[in-house]
Specification:
Blueprint lengths: L9 H12 L3 H14 L4 E7 L5 E6 L6 H6 L27 H7 L2 E7 L6 E7 L2 E8 L4 E7 L6 H6 L3 H18 L4 E6 L2 E6 L4 H9 L7 E7 L3 E8 L11 E5 L2 E3 L2 H10 L12 E7 L4 E2 L10 E2 L2 H21 L19 H10 L8 H5 L5 H4 L10 H12 L10 H4 L12 E4 L3 E6 L2 E6 H19 L4 E3 L5 E3 L2 H9 L1 H7 L2 E4 L4 E8 L7 H18 L4 H13 L9 H12 L14 E5 H8 L5
Parallel strand pairs: 1-7, 11-13
Antiparallel strand pairs: 1-2, 2-6, 3-4, 3-6, 4-5, 7-8, 9-10, 10-13, 11-12, 14-15, 16-17, 17-18, 18-23, 19-22, 20-22, 21-22
Helix pairs in contact: 1-4, 2-6, 6-7, 6-16, 8-9, 9-10, 15-17, 15-19, 15-20, 18-19
The chain binds adenosine-5'-diphosphate and magnesium ion (MG).
Length: 617
């Protein structure tokens, strides 16, 4: 038999690699932005057409490339950023794989113009589907411009797979925001279809946050800083009272690289415990600095996941940093934005205030001599006091899966039980509330104890799902229709789910740039503040979207049920209690609330009898 194995031609190999690197326009934008940052640019301009499907152009004033480098940059594994495998463990640049330009050029039509500082001529290269169409000198300014046109022009299947423009644009804005946040000293502009969406002047992080998210953030930022031998944490958290308004924007950057980590998110959330509602999420932009040899960023080609060699320490440091910041916030007048917000000028220079904070909040400060003395092997000891609050990785995983089990797609361990309808007869008259949280109903065969919040969430969830399916939720008109100003990405999101919102009874429509007006809300919801309801819904929706990959309808139904349900601690009259129990058992799946928690337990007569029978010892 003859040999049959062949090496793939470069163009095909690049196209395959592109599948990982360039999933959508936003991922190409990310790579181009990172290249511009790596090139030392101080000014970066982004031009987007047709949500990136027609054009993404990134223009920087960085160091530019020589003629040979310009051509080389499109080769796979061509990089100026690492040379030996040892360099992999000390990565300080964004890029290092040398795959981005090769991948982008494999699936689009690219025009590169680049000119080095100090040289008279630059290089222009046009390349389509990995094929060089043109290379010639040109005279311009120093810096680099990369235009990526007609993404996936040669891979129609993938082009068809792209989402609607609002969705793709939302991803683009998110990537842009992440890079803009991590480099506040670089000026950025973003044009979409010739409209200027962002102009961000170089400045301090606090100014950049306000530039990205809007003026409402101005008075709401608390500086946060913790310096330890192992890791430094710096940045801002939102004030607890702004947790709802801030729409759950959360950002971790490790050595200036945006990362996602549920584990570290948990650390911040736990520091806010007691200060915000359990269903709220605080705003934060936190930068971790850590010796690159303690992390592994090579886990995934899109590089938003990261491995730390000592996760528990990082968790503890973040939690403590945020706690300190919040503590300080209670004794220090709120941050005056016109002041120079400088990381070094912090409250902890003032011993009097610090003493006060330490009294009020019994967390461990890392600035104590005790801490400073601690060798890295002494870490564990240092956190002993916190130990039970720091979930181990596995514990945390369990928590995650517990939430996940609800999603019908993931198909839960309790599924079998959940879909067997319980045999419960109608309560026969006597109902009462315990702790304003549980409804106890008497039946001829025993007692039923219903968690009122879980039950109501379940009832509403199923109702909203039905309304979404039938596209006919009843709506009540707002007397004074409120307008809601949103960030560009939230705005795009709302436009995208408008049909579903209508089905639920939310009559929203566009009302100027990044603003919507709420003309009507679902008829069966008793609320005073329509705007708050809507913002809360959006917040919850985004939260679920990150945490569980639910489809739009399921997510909306869950989010609205969460937001509008009866809560623990609310008093009910007997008619309300009976209706609640009746409606719960009319549900398709009455056994569980939305968090996978039980919505009721049944105590039947035989178990009640057994409590009082003599033991047969
Ligand atoms: P990586 O960033 O992983 O090295 P890329 O494919 O993104 O790989 O880029 C390849 C090389 O091209 C980079 O290492 C860099 O030397 C050069 N390059 C890319 N973009 C720019 C730019 N905007 N300015 C200067 N050099 C660039
Ligand atoms: Mg790169």
């Amino acid at each position: 038999m003859s040999d049959i194995i062949q090496l793939l031609p470069d163009a095909i190999a690049n196209q395959i690699a592109a599948g990982e690197v360039v999933q959508r326009p936003a991922s190409a934008l990310k790579e181009l932005l990172e290249n511009a940052v790596d090139a030392g640019a101080t000014q970066i301009q982004v031009v987007i057409k047709d949500a990136g499907k027609q054009l993404i152009q990134v223009i920087d004033n960085g160091r530019g490339m020589s003629q040979t480098d310009a051509r080389m940059s499109f080769e796979r594994h061509a990089t100026s950023k690492i040379r030996t495998s040892n360099d992999l463990f000390s990565i300080r640049t964004f890029g290092f794989r040398g795959e981005a330009l090769a991948s982008i050029a494999a699936v689009s039509q690219v025009e590169l113009r680049t000119q080095q500082v100090g040289s008279e001529l630059g290089t222009l290269i046009q390349i389509e589907g990995s094929e060089v169409k043109k290379q010639e000198p040109f005279a311009g300014k120093h810096g680099t411009s990369v235009s990526m046109k007609n993404l996936f022009f040669n891979v129609p299947a993938r082009r068809n797979f792209l989402k609607s423009n609002p969705v793709e644009m939302k991803h683009i804005v998110e990537e842009f925001q992440r890079v803009a946040l991590s480099y506040s000293e670089i000026g950025f502009t973003l044009f979409q279809q010739d409209l200027e969406v962002y102009t961000l002047l170089p400045g301090k992080l606090s100014q950049r946050i306000v530039g990205v998210f809007g003026k409402s953030y101005q008075g709401n930022l608390i500086p946060c800083e913790e310096l330890t031998p192992h890791v430094n944490v710096k940045g801002y958290v939102g004030k607890p009272e702004s947790a709802k308004k801030t729409r759950g924007d959360q950002f971790f950057f490790v050595n200036n690289r945006y990362i996602k980590s549920n584990y570290l998110h948990h650390a911040v959330n736990s520091a806010f415990e007691g200060l915000i509602q359990p269903d709220q999420s605080p705003f934060y932009v936190l930068f971790l600095e850590i010796d690159p040899s303690h992390i592994d960023i090579n886990v995934h080609p899109t590089k938003t996941e990261i491995k730390f060699d000592d996760e528990r320490t990082i968790y503890a440091v973040i939690r403590s940093a945020v706690k300190q910041a919040l503590g300080a916030h209670h004794v220090v007048p709120s941050l005056d934005f016109s002041l120079d917000v400088n990381f070094n000028e912090k409250w902890d220079n003032d011993p009097e205030k610090k003493a006060q904070v330490d009294r009020e909040y019994s967390y461990k400060s890392f600035n104590t001599p005790e801490f400073k003395k601690a060798s890295s092997t002494g870490w564990e000891k240092l956190f002993e006091g916190n130990q039970n609050q720091i979930p181990s990785r596995t514990q945390h995983r369990e928590e995650e899966t517990e939430v996940l089990t609800f999603s019908s797609k993931v198909n839960p361990s309790y599924a079998k039980e959940a879909f067997i309808r319980p045999q419960v007869e109608e309560p026969n008259g006597t109902t009462f509330q315990v702790e304003l949280s549980y409804v106890v109903a008497q039946m001829s065969t025993g007692l039923l104890i219903v968690d009122q919040q879980a039950a109501h969430e379940r009832i509403l969830y199923e109702r909203y799902l039905r309304q979404l399916k039938l596209a006919q939720g009843p709506s009540q008109q707002c007397l004074f229709p409120p307008t809601v100003h949103l960030g560009p990405s939230d705005f795009a999101l709302v436009i995208d789910i408008t049909p579903e919102l209508h089905s639920l009874g939310f009559m929203v429509s566009e009302f100027g740039k990044d603003t919507i007006i709420i003309n009507g809300v679902p008829a069966d919801i008793h609320i005073k503040n329509e705007k708050e309801l809507f913002e809360g819904l959006l917040e919850q929706y985004k939260h679920f979207k990150n945490e569980l990959s639910l489809d739009t309808r399921e997510n909306l139904a869950r989010s609205l049920a969460r937001k509008s349900s009866l809560k623990r601690g609310q008093k009910l009259n007997s008619q309300e209690m009976e209706t609640l129990v009746g409606q719960l058992f009319a549900c398709q799946n009455p056994n569980y609330g939305l968090g996978g928690n039980k919505s009721f337990v049944k105590l039947d007569l035989s178990s009640i009898h057994s409590f009082f029978s003599k033991s047969h010892v």
